[in-house]
Structures are given as C-alpha cells and as structure tokens.
Amino acid sequence: MVFVVLRRLGVFATTVVVASVVTFLMLSILPGNAARIALGVQATEADVAAQATAMGLDRPAIVRYLDWFGHVLIGDFGTSTVSRQAIGPEITDALGITVILVLTSVVLALLFAIPFGILTAVRQRKLDGAILSGISQIGVAVPGFLAGMLLVTVFAVMLRWLPAGGWVDPGENFGEFALHLILPAIALGSVQGAVLSRYVRSSVLEVMREDFIRTARAKGLGAGRALFRHGLRNAAVPVMTVLGLQIATLLVGAVVIERVFSIPGLGSLLLDKVALRDLPAVQGIVLVLVVFVLALNFLVDLAFTLIDPRLRSAA
Amino acid sequence: MTAIKYETRARRPAGHGGGATLWAGLVLIGLVLLAAVVSVFWTPFDPEGVFSDSILLPPGAKHLLGTDSFGRDVFSSILRGAQISLLVGTVAVGIAAVLGVPFGIVAGMNPGRLDQFMMRGNDISLAFPALLLAIIFGAIFGAGTVTAMVALGIGTAPAFALIARSGTMQIMSREYVQAARASGKNGLFIGLRHVLPNISGMLIVQASVSFGIAVLAEAALSYLGLGTPPPTPSWGRMLQDAQGYLFIEPLLIVWPGIAIAVAVLGFNLLGDGLRDRFDPKMQVKR
Amino acid sequence: EGEPDTSLTVGLLATPGNLDYTTTAGAAIPQALLYNVYEGLVKLNNDGTIIPLLAKSWTISDDGLVYDFLLHDGVTFSDGSPFTAESVKFSLERVKDNWTANGPAYLDPIASIEAVSDTEARITLSKPSNSWLFNMSGPVGTMFTESALADLATAPVGTGPYTVSSFKTGDSLVLAANAEYWGEVPYMTDVTLRYFTDATAQTNALLSGDINLISGISQFQLVDQFKSNTDFQVLEGASTGEVTLSMNNASDAFSDVRVRQAVMYAIDRQAVMDTANSGYGLLIGSMVPPTDPWYDESLADLYPYDPDRATELLAEAGVSDLTVAFKIPNLPYAVAGAQVVKDQLAKVGITADVTALEFPAVWLDDVFSSHDYDMSLIMHSEPRDVNAFAAPTYYAGYDSPAVMAKFAEADAADATTYIELMKEATTTMAEEAAADWLYLQPAISLADADLLGVPKNTPSLALDLSTIAR
Amino acid sequence: MTDSTPTLSVTDLRVGSPFTELLHGISFDIAAGERVGLIGESGSGKSLTATAVMGLLPETLAATGTIRLNGVDADLLTAGERRLNSLRGNTMAMVFQEPMTALNPLMRVGAQVAEIMTVHHTERGRRQARQRAVELLAQVKLPNPAEAALAFPHQLSGGQRQRVMLAMAMANDPQLLLCDEPTTALDVTVQAEVLKLIGNLVTDRGTALLLITHDIAVVAEVCQRVLVMYQGDIVEDGPVGRVLTAPQHPYTQKLIAASDLSSVDDRGRLHTMSMPVVSTPAATPSSPRPIQADATAALTAPPHRAAHQRLEPDGPPVIFNEATGAPAISVRGLSRQYRRRGGGLFTPAPVVHGLREVSFDVAEGQRFGIVGESGSGKSTLMRILCALDQPTSGTVDVLGQSIDGASERQLREFRSQVQIVFQDPMGSLDPRMRVRDIVAEPLRQVSRAEALVRVEAQLAAVGLDADVMHRHPHQFSGGQRQRISIARALITRPRVLVADEAVSALDVSVRAQVLNLLADLVDEYQLTLVFVSHDLGVIRHLCDTVAVISDGRIVECGPTASVYDRPLHPYTQQLVSATPSMDELARRITS
Ligand SMILES: Nc1ncnc2c1ncn2[C@@H]1O[C@H](COP(=O)(O)OP(=O)(O)OP(=O)(O)O)[C@@H](O)[C@H]1O
Ligand SMILES: Nc1ncnc2c1ncn2[C@@H]1O[C@H](COP(=O)(O)OP(=O)(O)OP(=O)(O)O)[C@@H](O)[C@H]1O
Ligand SMILES: [Mg+2]
Ligand SMILES: [Mg+2]
Hints:
Chain D: One of its GO terms (molecular function) is ATP binding. The complex is a heterotetramer. By secondary structure, chain B is an all-alpha fold. Chain B has helices at residues 2-16, 19-41, 74-109, 113-126, 130-141, 145-172, 175-182, 187-223, 235-243, 251-278. Chain B has one domain (19-39, 67-279): MetI-like (MetI-like fold). Chain B starts with a helix and ends in an 8-residue tail after the last helix. Residues 1-17 and 280-286 of chain B have low confidence and may be disordered. Mean pLDDT of chain D is 80; it is low at 274-299 and 342-346. Bound molecules: adenosine-5'-triphosphate (ATP) (2 copies) and magnesium ion (2 copies).
C-alpha cells in the first residue's frame, strides 16, 4: 500500500521535473536581452554586457537550469531581475489573488450552472427549456472580456455602484475586498457558468436516459426524485472533469479579466514579467502554474475515486 | 425483408437525431463561411486602408454598419474578419487534431507502460493551456495570427489526445479489431482502417466545439495584443479597438460582438447536433 | 464641511518594476519618486524653467566652471539623517560608479565636488556646460543618504515631501506626507498611485470614482467624454514626447537624403494625428517641444504634405518600388500611427512592411541595439534628447559631424548663444530629415473637477504631487 | 382465480414514434395468480409492451389504448404521474432486461432494494427496510446477503445483479409482476432457482406474472399461458401446452421447431425458420456437397475424465483429451492472470485468474466444444489459442507452431491457418467497412481482382449473394452478419476454426441457421473446430467432444454424449440437470 502511494508520488514528482525542463527550455529561447531592458536605452553595450554577467545570463544553459531548479526544490525561486526581490512571495501573492478570483467565479458559475443545467435538461422538450438552453448557448458565445467591459460600463461607470477595478486584500479591508471582487467574479463566472451549464445539461440528459433512472421510476419515485436521488451523483463525474480542466485553464485564462479589471493576478504578473524578460520570475510562475494544474488533476482523480466506488475497488 | 427492416432502422435516427440544432448550427456557420468567401473577392470598401475623411460615421446607406476610427467600413471589416476567424479555427483545430489524434490512438492501442508514459506526457502538455502558450510563443516568435493559431493548436491537442485515446480503447475492445488481429493485420492498419474511422464521429464533435473555442480564444488574444496585428481586421481586435469608443460610438462594439457570437454559436450548435446524431443513446435503441 | 479630504488616488499606466532608478531604466520610477520622495539641488518648474530646491541659491563663476550652491539648513532625510553638503558630494560622486541607468553620463562634466561647509557645496566642471544644470534637475541630481542605500529597490529614503508607505508591483504605490518635511507640507497627505495596463480601465476607474486623477492619458479617443462632463476637468499641456517616424539613415533605403525628404512630403502629419491620435497633439517638425527655449514653430511647416513632390524626389534619387522594413513597437499609438503612415507611403509608391515588435524586449534588440530596421515609429519622451538622437552610434544612424560639433559648441557657449546654436543644429537636423517628427504627444490630465494645482505640462519625468489640492 | 376481473387488462395498445408504429394494437388480460409467458422474435415489441404497462416508455414514444389494473379506477395510460408513482413498485413491479445497467452504480445494492420500501412506506423505517432488503437478497439466493447488501453493483456478477433486481421487484408483494428476460445473465443452475422463486411468489401471493423470454423451455417450465409476438402484434395466445405442441400461427410453428436442438432433419440439420431475402439456403445445388469427413473424425476417442479424479492430490494435473498422434492443438499448464487496471489510490491492482493450469489436446478434425459459466475463462482461452493474447505461463502449440512468446512475424503463417468467429455478430464487423472489405481482410498478397473473386465465392459458400458485397454490416440481420464473419474466417481456408459463443447472441431462429451452416462448413473444409458456448444443448448438437470449464479450470472432458449422459464432476452434473430440454418439456406438458 505504501508502495503504491510512493509510486504515485514518484510519478507525480517525475512529471514535475519533466515539466520544469520543458518550462526552462521553452523560456530559454526567449529573444530580448534582460540586461538591456533593465538598463534602458541610454546604457552602452559594455554596460549591458557587464549587467548580463552580473545577472548570470552568460552561464551555460545546463548550469542555469540546475542552479534554478535546485533552488526551487528548496523553496527558493530566486531573485527577480526587475524588482530585485525574492520571487516566491511575488508569485504567492499573485497566485492567491487569482485563486480567490477563479474559485469565487467557479462557485458562482456552479451556483448558476447546476440549477440551470438541470432545468434545461429536464425541460428539454418544453418551450421554456429550449429558450433557457438558447440563452446558455449565447452565454457561451460571448467573449469573457466583452462581458467584463459591459459590466464595468453599466455597474461601475454608469451606476457607480461598484468599483471599476483594482484589488484590495481581504485582510486589509474585507468589505472593500468583497466589493472589488463582485464584478470580475461575475464576468469570469458568467461565461464559465454558461459553459458549465451546457455540460451539466448534457450530463444530466445522459443520466436521465440511463436504465437505472428507469429502475428508480419503476420503484415509484417521481421523475424529479429519481433524478435527485440517483442521477445527480452520476452526472457529477463528467462535470467534475470539466470543472478541473476549467480551473486549470482559468488560472492563466483569468488574465483577460484581470486586465479588464486591473487586478494584479498571476496571469497579469506573467505578462508583465515576460515583457520585462524577468526570466527567473517567468520560470517560477510557469512552473507554479504547471505544478498547480498537475496537482489539480491529481485531486480530481482523487475526488473521482471518492465519488465512484467502481474506481475505489476493482473487483 | 429482414434487410429492408435494418435499412430503415439505420436511416431513421439520421432523420431526427439533433436535427434542429444541427441545422441552426449549419446555417450560422454557413453565414460566416459566406462572409469569408465573399470577402476574398469583394468587400464594399477596403477594410485595410485608412480614410481620414470618413472617421467614425454612424451606420447609414453608404456604410451599412458605420465606420471606425480609421474611417474603415465596419461591414467590410466584419466580412473580412470572418476569414481570420475561420483561418484561426481551421488551423488551430487542424494542428490539434494532427498532433493529438495519432498520439491518442497510439496510446489507446498500447495499453500498459507506453500508454501510461504517453498520458503523463499529455498531463504535462495539459498543464500548458493555450493562453499560456500564446503568451510564451508570442514572446518567442512575436505575436501574430500564426503564433496564436499554433499556440491554440498545441494547447488544444491534449484534449484531442484524450478523446482519441478513450475512443480507441473502446474500439480496441471490439471484436472486429480482434478479428483483424487474428487476420494478421498490423497496428498501423488497424489504427487507420478500424480505429480512426470509428472514432471519427467523436473527433468531429470535438473539432466543432474546439473551433468555437478557438474563435473565442483568438478574440481574447487580440484583446491582450497577442492576436492578429492590424490592419488585418480580426473580430477580437475590432472589439478591443471599439472599447475606447464605447461612449462615443457604442455600436462599434456591438457588430464584432455579434459576429463572434454567431460564429461560436454556430460551431457549438453544430457540435451539439452532431453529438446527438452520433450518440447511440439518442438513437432508436435496438 | 468637516475634515478636508486630503487623500488622492492617481491612475498611471506604466508600472515601476522596483523603486531604484539608479540602476533601473524607465520613466515610471522617476515619475513616482522624483520631487515627491527624492529631491535634488534644483527642480524643473512646470513651465520648463530651473528653480531652486534643496539649494536655496547658487552662483556660477564667469568662466562657467564653478557652481557654488547654498543649501537649505535643517533638512533631514526621512530616516532622520541630516542633509548637508557632504550629502551632495556623496550622492553625486556615487553616480559615476554606481549608476547604470538614467544617464550617469549627464554628470561627466563634473571635475570635482567640495563640501565647503555644511550648507555650502562647490562643484567644479571640467568644461562649461549648459545642459549640466538642467540634467541636475533630473534623476541623476538626486540626493541620497549613505545610511539608506541598502534597500533602494523597495525602501527609498529622500528629503522629499512624501515617503513610500507601501509598494505592490504592478498594482499600487502608496505615498504618505512626510511630517518632518523641511519645506511646506503638501495638501494631500495620502496619495495612492494605482497602475493600470489598459487606458480604458483607467478612464473607467476615473468615471466610477475609484481614482481622482489620470496623469498623461495615452489614448485620446477617451478624452472627449470628459469634456462634456462637468464632474471632471481636462487639462491639456505639453509633454516632451516627440512621436517620431525614425528612418535608419545608415540603411540602404534611407541613406539618400532625398528619399528621407520624400517621406517627409509623403506624410500628412495632420492626418496621422487626426486618425491615430484623435486629433490631439502638436505638429512640431523637429525634436524640440515648445517648453525648450530653442523651439522653432516654423519648422512644423518645413515639409508640407505634398505627395507629388515626394514622387519627384524619389524619381530624382532613382528609387522605384521601394520596400522598407517598418518595425514598430507593439504600443497602441505606434500601431495606430503605422497604419496611417503605411497607407500614405503606399500612395507615393513606398511599400512599408509593418511588423509590430514586442516592446521593450524585442524592439530594443532589433531596432535599438542591432539597428536592423529601415523605419520605425516611437515616442522619445526624455527631455532634451535631441543631442542623443544626433549621435552617429544612435539607432537613427544620423551621421553629421557638423551638427554634433554645433551641439558641443552650444553646450559650452553662453546662455544666449546656447539657444541660438541649439536652434541651428536642430533646424539642420530637420532639414536633413534625420527623422520625421510627426507630432508632439500632448500631456493631458483628467481630474475630478474639484482638484486644484494639477500640473499641466510634464517638462520633466516627474509627476509633482506637491501642488495638488482640493 | 376467484375474482373474475383480471389483474391486468390491456386493450388495443398501440405504441408508436412519430415515424412508425411499433405495437399495432395488442390486447391481453392476466388474471390474478396467472403466469403468462411472452415470447417472440427479438425486436417484436415484448419489452415495449411491458414498459408501456409500467408507463415508462421512452419520451420519444407515445401510446394509445387502455391499460387497466384491478383495483385502480383509472386507465394507466392517462393516469396522472402522481397516481402512477404510487402504483409503480408497489402494486406493479418490473424486472428490466439489462441487469448490467439497471442499477445505480454509485449506490449500495441493499440501499437500492430498501429504497423501494421506504418510497412506499411499506416498512416503518429506514432500518427496517434495510433489514428486509437483506432478507429479500437471501430469498433470491444471493450468497452472503448481509455483505452483498453493502456491495456496489459493479462488485456483483451479472446474475447477482439480476437477482437484486428481482428482490427489488418482489419487495412490496406486487399484484402484477413484469419480468423482462429475468434470467438471461444467469447460468442454468441459478436460473432454475430464480424461476422457482418467481413461481413461488406468484402462487403464494396470487400475483399476476408476465414473463418475457426468448427461451421456450423457460416458458414451458414456468407459465400457464403464452403470448407470441411477431412484429408488433400478438399472433398467438393460448395455454402453454397447446401453443408449444400445436402452434397455429406459422411464425410460432417455425419458432418452436427452431428451438428444438434435438430435432433434426435427415441430414442432421436443425429446423430453421429462415425467411430468405438475400440469401439462399446453405445447401443449394450450386454449392458442392462436401466430402464426408467422418473417416478422419473417427478417431479413437480419448477417455472421459474429470479433474477431481486425479489419482494423487498433488500429482500432475490431468491432461484432458490427450491425443495419440500429432494434435492440432496442444495446451500444457496454461495460466493467464489479469491485473485489473487502476486499483484504488492506496491498494494495488488486484489479480484476476482467467485460466489456471489448463492442459488439453485437440486432435485434427475434431469438433471440440467448451462449455462453462460466464466468466469461467472460455474467451480467454480462445484468445490465447488465436494468439491474440499471451499466456502468463504454460505452453500452447497450434498446428505445430508454438504460440507463447511468438512474434507477429513468426505467426504470419499461423494467422492464415487459424481463424476465429466471435460472439457478437454486430460487434465483430467494423460498421464502417463494406462487406467486401471485411471478408477480404485476412487475405494477404492477393490482387484486388482475385480477392473479389474469392470473396464472392466465399459469400456464396455461406449462402449470401454477391450483391451484398457493397453493403455495410448494419444492413443485415443478425444471422446474415454471423455468416459474414464466418465467411471472413474461412476465406483463407484455415485448418482450425475457433468460435467463441458464435450463436449466443442470436435468437433461436437465426441460431439454427448458423449452426447448420457451421456444421456444413466444418464437414466441407475438414476443419478442426473449437466451439465455445455456455449452452450445453448447442454443444451437444455440434461437437463430438466437450470440455467443461469452471473458474478457470477444465473440470471434465470427454465425448459429448458421454459427458451429457453421465456427468462426473458435480459442476457438470448441476449444469446438465438444470438445462431444460425440449424432450423433458414435452413430457411435462403432456403429463
Ligand atoms: N425509443 C424507441 N424509439 C423508437 N423505436 C423503438 C424504441 N425502443 C424500441 N424501439 C423499437 O421497437 C421495437 C420493439 O422493441 P422491443 O424492445 O420491445 O423489442 P423486444 O421484443 O423486447 O426485443 P428483444 O428480445 O431483443 O429484447 C424494435 O423494433 C425497436 O427497434
Ligand atoms: N482484460 C481483462 N482484464 C481483467 N480481467 C479480465 C480480462 N478479460 C477477462 N477477465 C476476467 O477473466 C475471467 C475470465 O474471463 P473470460 O472472458 O475468459 O470468461 P468467459 O468464460 O468467456 O465468460 P463469458 O461467458 O461471460 O464470455 C473473468 O473473471 C473476467 O472478469
Ligand atoms: Mg426486450
Ligand atoms: Mg466470453
């Protein structure tokens, strides 16, 4: 048993190492000279060369990789070439913001998608079901940033009910934090919600056609009760897969909404750091993202195992 | 008589499986396709020129949907923009399919170590979503349509691989595959002759849905400045440009918004329709 | 009624990566810190004149080599350490070896620095220089204390009216009034500088009341909505940002002056400004903003829009079917402007292959460092940067020994001759079409209607907050 | 049957989709305590009838007519949903056809059984309901009922799941019990018990029973009356004895004739009810009569032995059917273990024994049958014989070629000499290929033109016209499809033909056709046949030698007649005694 756990962790660790190599290689061919960017247009070529040496940019790739990853393993992401601060805290701060944003939006999305998806599935052949389903289809087709732009225009600019953007740490001022979170979370969540509701719908539709629902109805359970008692757990499995993937893509994908709302999240940080060729920071961010996604996959698998006894014991 | 019975059985589901949805999707995509094709040969005005004398005109007889800040006819730009959207969708989905499908099939046909190994590789590529790739590739190769398409393609490939793999595993357990093996056919033959044709239904559904996603992603990338560079009109960039004129000429944001929605909706409906059609459960049960 | 609201939130676009402008380039750090947190001996006034700051007054020897500064008494840095003539000596001597950014070379004319007494500093130049004192008003003239050098990147310590109370990269910089300030304590006691990446988000924040002031809006189509809105004021001033269509004078395409001139005639600068900049800006015709004394407004008409003349010149130069690599930074004004330029060049038969390069990384590499381009479009925002532009090693590749000599002569000349010679040199550059200076970017600030004393012009890199009140 | 009003009364029931009518107005009654069988061709509408009574037709179908239940003052077809809910599971209950999917995979089976009682409040509390569920599971003979109640459906075998369904249906002592093929997944021994159980319920409680099945023997055993459906109509309705012995409708006549595996014509061929459309019967004058292979088949029959007859407990395992000369197939000590995928997060993947230490020979020209319950390892053995799978240990020689560890290249010759016919006629044909390509698939290094000629000839040999070549598999009936797969198997003129449950998916009528065809072809080509089935009757008809597999081991082997008449191993004895035969049936009916 211990062996199996160790083996799984071993696979996970190997995947992370490979991912780190991929990350490093991909980023090592970024054009642009970080030293020149740091010094600006007035610096001479000699200054730039000296700066490059100081930043350790002239060492062979393998040395740079080992140095970097070795330090990452002990929790040291290195020092940003731009802010000259340890990168770790910068990444954790931004990651925290993005995770809060993404999770809030996903919760909103679920709050919307589950009832909506079930409703559209159950009333599939009715007019109202078709209309609702149409609405969610259109919701899927609207770009997220457009939704964000429109929300800002209406609720922040025209009505002045809510701030147009920015971020306040929850520890600093929770009320303000909540106010600042509402619009971006809705913008991000509405589109995700529309997408998720499609999955909930098809998943519920699928489950509704399962024989065991018919069995439940043959027992005398009404259609609704049969669906709730027997269908939803079964429908949850495919929806969870999608949810896992969505969260994974949203960590970076939220950058569009972060831009619309000027939120200093991880995606924004990545874009800024890439622009400034702050390589240690970029590598750190990408690695954190990758590990996060891999870990998420791992967790989704775990959740499956909990929900579905077929995966728990094979017999 | 028996044969006739089976024939009607096979045809019947085709008649109504996902019918309305499918048609709605096809009509919308048809519109986009039409715009793309027409704009190759003709647009009312040049969508890439600069017309300093006709800046920001409201919709009217001459300029059906008005003009933008460069004096360009919005209608012409929308037409031409369909080309970019379709191009991005086609290339991205093409790349994703070309990379993902063989990968998934090979993994699915070789359960055990190779499959495990390939799937861990797939996990890693899943961890680099399209947008992340687009940002990195944009920095490496310079932002632009090609970079965006490639990034989207590579980013979507793992999804294709997963679908192809699960489909392949289903097909591999079918007896006709065993029969082919018993006939001495090799893996390549089985993959091409048996597996690929039989999972194509799933793949087409996936392709259609991915197409819609690619159109949306291109818009998002354009918004971030990582998409199609001007003056080539892309719907996403038109949206971004229009953002600055929201209070001056709000309609400017409406047209590309509608265009994107129509295209994405079209592909989603097509995907839904096709899924219903390919889904054996939606069909008459034997 | 009640307590006056003394907090201010300013929306800015470029975010500083850190707070150390001695080693980090870019306008963002000086914009936030210069004159607010850091001070030098002199300051550039909003109208472009040099006024005293930490130096009460100064005298210049007749040969223009010896500057005697009389310093304010009782000035302390925000960490409590005193500011004296020793600080002047320490700070300026440090520049040569420790500064890598923001023009350490500006102080090259200094031969020696001497702390005569606590309040008297004497600086001797190796040769007379008109630009030196001007440069002293910029970042290189900043006074530092030896006790607080460890953490320049995060914890700047200066003598200014504000101190940094918090800094979140990419998000905000919070300044608090310095209670111990030696001069008049500013009206605004809490100032938050919020950084945006998107101009629309910035104006939305102003419209929704999240921020009070936008200094230097970058997308001018967003301005009009504020003009009709009585809740806000629109302040138009001059910047030092010349939007420049640069031509690689050393390239095959543009080494012939006639080809460059053809470009000058081919471009309708007014149309470029109207289309790409919503009509905001000032046609300048040279690399000199009106806040510089040698500004010559007639240069704006040197090359009127005349495509026929352009075609003639091209024919004269024996050029046909010219295709140029037009490498622009991926910045909104450049992307917009390039489309108009490309269109206009096409009308005289020049094909411009536009590529938008990532800015700064790739553009700096390709265009600025490697000179691998024919044409570019970029704003030069540093004050008085025309001399630098004329250097033969500069990316423009403009090589005129005569002009360089004239600049050197001007720097060493007396004040009036200085202006005269500068005017001559810049005029020659314009005539020889060293570049096409399309227009001067306006400095437009948008503010709540009740804000007073918002600086209009931006002659220096700094955003001076000390004058703002309600 | 004191009450004159029947428990169930169906009048003029029509079920249709917007495109076609599927049930054309059927009417029948079932009285209290009456046991009615419903038989008929696959797809004739049996399941539809039952689901219509339950009011659980798929949404896409609509029903008209009247369905009345004794004591309910409403027509079930028009009754409100609330009303129906109170009846379903309580007054009327149904056992559905597919036990694999009819249970909720995420819920313990005990809870699923208990639910039907809590829904109708027939047990006071949740705990009582659980207890009663365990009792019910015991009644349906689930081993270890208390533990089984805590199992999830996937942890039970198909037969066990079917019994769970049955327990559920019986929980509230319904007035009307509808059973749709309740024993298909059960092996004959369990089937007998389950049928007895149903019978008891009906007699004890006066339940009206509708039993749907394709197994006429089952009907004969359980039912009093039988309804025969054919293409959406009830074509015959009468007492079992009458219908089975003197069927009136031509369809019923053919059906009954085809069901009887012991009644053959003068050529030793089964009676079929083939209704030729594209095919001509196998024995057309055009196809050459086979040279009788009897001479070669007349081998010295190896002794009839059973595994438990091993002399010493630890002695060498028995080699069954040991051949004297060079056997066509020689298997020694063959084991195959499967490692199940995944396992839990914290548990290693469990090992499943497919085959354990199997040794036997098959002589050239022998018709070797293998019987055994589901999951006993039959398919595993077949796959290994065809080199589609590798043994974990042991050796396998087929036609002198050693298969274990052989590379695909070494097997090239082997591949054309050993062919396989699979269980599922649809599943074994690639739906996207044309018949011509399917049949030609095993051919190698043959020009296209020649391939076509050979395909045509082969199709003719299995009784299919050349014009079927361009069609796709879905355009054929089950029997025709199985012929296609047989044609594919035979096109390379193999010396060994392995058939894995080649007729179990077919309904009786088609089954007879295919068995005849196989018998013809084996004679004609002098094949060595290895034929797997769980149906003793089929094996008995077709094979000269039979091996019985149970739990991965051969437990008994010998000449078919000998095994059938004098089974040695307890498992075989059970198997034989539980198999209903038509002879017995006739006896019982007439008595
Ligand atoms: N949902 C449906 N929509 C349309 N046709 C259907 C549907 N369900 C079943 N049918 C058709 O109705 C006919 C009768 O089906 P039914 O399931 O009752 O057959 P059956 O007699 O039970 O067959 P089997 O013995 O194979 O179970 C078949 O032709 C089938 O294809
Ligand atoms: N690929 C596999 N992985 C794991 N276990 C398997 C696999 N194939 C078969 N088994 C297991 O091996 C045992 C024998 O299976 P096999 O298919 O040979 O049985 P069978 O006798 O053909 O049954 P049936 O009559 O149901 O077809 C069963 O317990 C089965 O669950
Ligand atoms: Mg049925
Ligand atoms: Mg089997």
